[in-house]
Design brief:
elongated
Length: about 160
């Protein structure tokens, strides 16, 4: 991780990072937006995974539910990434040696890749909800996205 130190220093020294650090209100506002976006994302993930398991909205076709939730999922993830980067810039050097931060970044990357490579194809595949592949996919998705949230929460305790 030594090779990333210049990037962390650069982020910490940006005007945006400095402005957020110097303001009494910017960090809490950005953090609130970040947590709101996380809540929306986890809500869409949970609803879609419950449908994938056959436990919710049984009369609604899974691809229809997925299409309906896709904009909320996308925009909440985008908002999380933007606000997360702003928060990171305001305390990049604190994050450098923070193991939960590293865990969050790795789990976030894996969750995004899993969503595009495994989750979406499973949701769009013709099959009845509750099959073994769908159960494994839903469990993996829930584990990863909630893992991002738990690791994020742990950052402040380290």
């Amino acid at each position: 991780m030594q090779t990333l130190l210049p990037f962390f220093k650069w982020c910490d020294g940006t005007a945006v990072g400095q402005a957020i650090r110097d303001s009494r209100f910017l960090f809490p506002i950005i953090e609130s937006l970040h947590l709101f976006a996380l809540t929306v994302l986890l809500g869409t993930v949970l609803v879609l995974n419950l449908r994938l398991l056959g436990a919710g909205m049984p009369k609604q076709p899974l691809p229809l539910v997925a299409r309906a939730l896709a904009p909320l999922t996308f925009w909440s993830l985008l908002a999380m990434l933007i606000t997360g980067f702003l928060l990171f810039c305001s305390e990049a050097l604190k994050c450098y040696d923070n193991p939960p931060f590293l865990v969050k970044m790795v789990v976030l990357f894996v969750a995004i890749v899993f969503h595009w490579v495994v989750f979406r194809p499973t949701v769009n595949a013709p099959a009845e909800p509750g099959g073994p592949r769908r159960i494994a996919t839903a469990a993996g998705s829930i584990f990863l996205w909630f893992g991002v949230a738990v690791a994020g929460r742990a950052i402040g305790f380290y």
